[in-house]
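User: Fold this; C-alpha coordinates only.

Assistant: Input:
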Amino acid sequence: MAIPKLSKVSFSKSTSEINFATEEYIFDFLEMLKAKSRLPIKQILSMLLNKEADTVSCSRDDTGFSFFASEGRNGISVIVKELGKETIEFNMPKDRLEKVKLFS
Protein backbone atom coordinates (compact mmCIF):
# COMPACT_ATOMS: atom_id res chain seq x y z
CA MET A 1 0.00 0.00 0.00
CA ALA A 2 1.45 3.32 -1.07
CA ILE A 3 1.74 6.06 1.49
CA PRO A 4 -0.04 9.20 0.24
CA LYS A 5 2.11 12.31 -0.14
CA LEU A 6 0.97 15.23 2.01
CA SER A 7 1.06 18.94 1.33
CA LYS A 8 1.01 21.57 4.05
CA VAL A 9 -2.22 23.61 3.98
CA SER A 10 -2.77 26.79 5.96
CA PHE A 11 -6.23 28.19 6.79
CA SER A 12 -6.33 31.65 8.32
CA LYS A 13 -8.80 34.37 9.17
CA SER A 14 -7.66 36.30 12.21
CA THR A 15 -5.47 33.45 13.39
CA SER A 16 -3.42 30.93 11.45
CA GLU A 17 -4.04 27.22 11.59
CA ILE A 18 -1.87 24.66 9.82
CA ASN A 19 -3.29 21.38 8.55
CA PHE A 20 -2.10 18.72 6.13
CA ALA A 21 -3.86 17.39 3.05
CA THR A 22 -3.21 14.73 0.46
CA GLU A 23 -2.42 15.77 -3.07
CA GLU A 24 -5.71 14.26 -4.19
CA TYR A 25 -7.53 16.53 -1.75
CA ILE A 26 -5.69 19.54 -3.19
CA PHE A 27 -6.64 18.52 -6.75
CA ASP A 28 -10.27 18.04 -5.70
CA PHE A 29 -10.18 21.44 -3.98
CA LEU A 30 -8.84 23.07 -7.16
CA GLU A 31 -11.58 21.41 -9.24
CA MET A 32 -14.25 22.66 -6.82
CA LEU A 33 -12.67 26.11 -6.74
CA LYS A 34 -12.60 26.28 -10.53
CA ALA A 35 -16.34 25.63 -10.67
CA LYS A 36 -17.31 27.82 -7.72
CA SER A 37 -15.09 30.83 -8.43
CA ARG A 38 -15.30 30.77 -12.25
CA LEU A 39 -11.60 31.71 -12.32
CA PRO A 40 -9.30 30.38 -15.10
CA ILE A 41 -7.29 28.22 -12.71
CA LYS A 42 -6.17 25.77 -15.42
CA GLN A 43 -4.79 28.62 -17.51
CA ILE A 44 -3.11 30.29 -14.53
CA LEU A 45 -1.27 27.12 -13.51
CA SER A 46 -0.43 26.29 -17.14
CA MET A 47 1.22 29.70 -17.51
CA LEU A 48 3.43 28.93 -14.53
CA LEU A 49 4.24 25.39 -15.64
CA ASN A 50 5.10 26.60 -19.17
CA LYS A 51 7.29 29.38 -17.70
CA GLU A 52 5.21 32.11 -19.37
CA ALA A 53 5.13 33.95 -16.02
CA ASP A 54 6.64 33.68 -12.54
CA THR A 55 3.57 35.03 -10.75
CA VAL A 56 -0.08 35.25 -11.76
CA SER A 57 -3.00 36.84 -9.92
CA CYS A 58 -6.66 36.80 -10.85
CA SER A 59 -9.90 37.82 -9.12
CA ARG A 60 -13.61 38.09 -9.79
CA ASP A 61 -15.84 40.63 -8.07
CA ASP A 62 -19.04 38.72 -8.82
CA THR A 63 -17.87 35.55 -7.01
CA GLY A 64 -15.66 37.28 -4.42
CA PHE A 65 -12.64 35.05 -5.11
CA SER A 66 -9.02 35.96 -5.71
CA PHE A 67 -6.35 33.48 -6.75
CA PHE A 68 -2.62 34.12 -6.57
CA ALA A 69 0.01 31.63 -7.73
CA SER A 70 3.78 31.92 -8.03
CA GLU A 71 6.59 29.63 -9.05
CA GLY A 72 9.34 29.01 -6.53
CA ARG A 73 12.22 26.62 -5.97
CA ASN A 74 10.00 24.16 -4.12
CA GLY A 75 7.10 24.21 -6.56
CA ILE A 76 4.08 26.40 -7.07
CA SER A 77 2.68 28.41 -4.17
CA VAL A 78 -1.05 29.15 -4.23
CA ILE A 79 -3.09 31.60 -2.15
CA VAL A 80 -6.88 31.56 -2.45
CA LYS A 81 -9.05 34.22 -0.82
CA GLU A 82 -12.82 34.34 -0.69
CA LEU A 83 -14.32 37.67 0.34
CA GLY A 84 -15.28 37.56 4.03
CA LYS A 85 -13.93 34.03 4.49
CA GLU A 86 -10.67 32.33 5.27
CA THR A 87 -7.48 32.46 3.22
CA ILE A 88 -6.07 29.14 2.05
CA GLU A 89 -2.39 28.72 1.17
CA PHE A 90 -0.57 25.66 -0.11
CA ASN A 91 2.48 24.57 -2.10
CA MET A 92 2.46 21.92 -4.78
CA PRO A 93 5.45 20.32 -6.52
CA LYS A 94 5.53 21.20 -10.24
CA ASP A 95 6.00 17.59 -11.33
CA ARG A 96 2.77 16.60 -9.54
CA LEU A 97 0.76 19.33 -11.29
CA GLU A 98 2.17 18.32 -14.69
CA LYS A 99 0.84 14.78 -14.22
CA VAL A 100 -2.72 15.89 -13.52
CA LYS A 101 -5.06 15.95 -16.51
CA LEU A 102 -6.75 19.17 -15.32
CA PHE A 103 -3.51 21.11 -15.61
CA SER A 104 -1.81 19.51 -18.61
